[in-house]
Design brief:
Elements: H1 62-93, H2 98-135
Length: 150
């Protein structure tokens, strides 16, 4: 049977390692002038390609823009219809409150009609402008090769 080592006499694995740069003649210092290690080469360059058979097209905001324009116009028209319907319903059920209804409609109905008119005009105007730009051919130039008119 072997005896355990005496106090202060440990094996090599029991002793702590010296700090960086404090070893026996070893150069554990960090070299700050060393060149960085280049990353391993990759086989593919650039972004990964889409799977075969798929088609990626660039983002086009026009469909989303048109649907939002249409949605806003629809909500404003529904708001106007709701206000008019509520006014008729209120006038039919509460004939004694027609004066207060008249005052309320003068305050509320004017701005809502203006908003509906602006939104629908903008919506249909932008549709007409888009259709006109798609149908109009490019203007032909007149004249010779330098573009001057004879």
């Amino acid at each position: 049977m072997t005896e355990p080592p005496a106090q202060g006499q440990g094996t090599a694995s029991d002793q702590p390692e010296p700090a960086l740069g404090q070893g026996e003649g070893s150069s554990d210092a960090i070299d700050l002038d060393a060149q960085p290690v280049p990353p391993p080469p990759t086989t593919a360059s650039g972004p990964p390609s889409p799977p075969p058979g798929s088609f990626e097209r660039p983002f086009d905001p026009n469909p989303a823009r048109e649907s939002v324009r249409g949605l806003i116009a629809q909500w404003l028209v529904l708001l106007l219809a709701g206000i008019v319907t509520a006014a008729f319903w209120f006038a039919a059920w509460r004939p004694d409150a027609r004066d207060s209804l008249k005052d309320l409609l003068q305050v509320v109905l004017g701005p809502v009609v203006a908003l509906v008119g602006s939104a629908t005009g903008y919506y249909f105007g932008s549709e007409r402008a888009a259709a006109a730009t798609q149908q109009t051919p490019a203007p032909a130039t007149q004249g010779g090769s330098n573009g001057s008119v004879s």
